[in-house]
Amino acid sequence: MKTTYRWVDEDHSVLALAERLRAVPNYAIDTEFHREKTYFPQLALIQIRVEDDTYLLDAPHLSASAVADLFKNSAVAIVHAAQQDLEILSLACGAKPELIFDTQIAAGFIGYSTPSLASLVQRELEISLPKGDRLTDWLRRPLTSDQCSYAASDVEHLHDLYRVISLQLQELQRESWALDACAELVKRPTQPVDPAMAWLRMKDARTLKPKSRGVAQSVAQWREERAQKLDVPVRQVLPDLALLGISQKSPQNHDELSQCRGVDGRHLKGTIASEILAAVNRGREVTAEFPVNDVEDFDRDLRPAATLISAWISEVAGKTSIETALLATRADIIDYLRGNSHARLRIGWRAEIIGSDLDDLREGTAGISFDGKGGLRLVRAAPEENFEH
Predict the structure, then answer these.
(1) Alpha carbon 254 to chain centroid distance?
(2) Residue range of the domain that includes 250
(3) Is the same domain home to 110 and 147?
(4) Which of 63, 226, 260, 382 has a C-alpha 20 to 30 A away from that of 25?
(5) 352 within 8 A of 368, measured Cβ to Cβ
(6) What are the residues facing 78 on neighbouring strands?
């Protein structure tokens, strides 16, 4: 059966919906967007389900202020894998839900590993979601009935998932952990890339020698700013291969630029070549280094400890049926070992689960051994012993 919905393409209807959201404890939301042909993602559709009603909001025909009004409430937004949705809503209208329940994150506390919405609905609700075209053009108007029904189905079962997952979290006494993890997602930055740091995202950036890094930073910054100005993907301004070639060769004139790998005729026309060469010249005066807190630059003498802690965290995650990546990433481990008092492993629910174990491991008052059953166990030293021999 196809999901029924209401099509919304006028601001006054959005404002009426916003008023309704202020009177309910929660609502389900999802978005459809494109970012293949532009620098900034293009919001195409917002799906919202309130109680038994589903609304499809025609985002390109609505004002940013009207859409932003949807999030001026204290209701919990029920979402699934919402990182990109939050980013796009923030960029499109300057607002996003501030209280969320992400079913993918929450499922990570009851034994799932980053499940898709379809697999979660199938396993928890025994319902098969309709299959849609992965390459659907959501900006096309009018959308077909099948497209609309498929989009509406993305929010149809989120309330039921919220209920069944919340019950399991309550039984496990993990509801507060899941809500804290969801709050972390809301707090993640949603701003565009800082052009001055764009070079770090370049493929093979770490192969560059020190004298090439300043050029890479400068040219990548020019590329990012031009892509933002024209609203086109950075690869259309200058592909990574060309950026790498320019950084390595540091060309001083048009002929040298034309010989850089990855550079083609479109980069040599008009003012583009002169802009690239100007960026190269600026880059020669810059000393660019990788961030000191970068995971790859992790202190060599602490790497064995990181490996040991990583093994223990994986063991704990398996035994407690918590998604390992939720419990700790490698960056979290490094942050902890560097002594950051605000490291995620030192505070909140993570510290509650493994904080004392990690402290004992680091201080040498505990060690790890095999448990004889294919797993690991923590072995604590007697008061007069330690594991630093």
Answers:
(1) 40
(2) 195-284
(3) yes
(4) 63
(5) no
(6) 28, 101
